[in-house]
Design a protein that fits this description.
The chain is α+β, with helices and mostly antiparallel strands. It contains 5 helices and 3 strands, in the order ααβββααα. It is 40% helix and 13% strand.
């Protein structure tokens, strides 16, 4: 387990977003990245087992499901959960690598890529 301050963790998330490939980062719009300590019960409503440990969640409408009606909408949110990631990490470098992985994973959901497809391409 490796713990960092909330500010340090938020900075890791920011660096994870900045590290996204340019072709993806430039296409992200109306998305807020944030940190919460743990997942909410409602985060499991998307088909995730309550026995699973959520490391992050995408709360929004994926690009592939947006239609003409999608305007004047509050930002989608990508939330990274601090406590479970800290519990899993050996040291600061491991924690940062895990945070960056979860950021990429949740951004994939924003683009409409399912967990199943992420597994197929070896990116889960």
């Amino acid at each position: 387990m490796h713990e960092v301050t909330l500010d340090e963790f938020e900075e890791m998330v920011r660096r994870g977003v900045e590290a996204l490939p340019e072709e993806f980062g430039d296409r992200i719009a109306n998305v807020e990245f944030s940190v919460e300590e743990v997942a909410r019960p409602s985060d499991y409503a998307l088909g995730t087992s309550h026995n699973a440990t959520l490391l992050g969640v995408y709360r929004g409408v994926p690009l592939t499901r947006r239609g003409a009606y999608y305007n004047m909408i509050a930002p989608d949110r990508i939330v990274i959960f601090r406590q479970p990631l800290q519990r899993m990490s050996r040291d600061v470098a491991d924690l940062e690598a895990r945070v960056h992985h979860v950021v990429r994973h949740e951004v994939a959901h924003y683009f409409g890529i399912s967990d199943e497809r992420l597994r197929e391409i070896g990116a889960y």
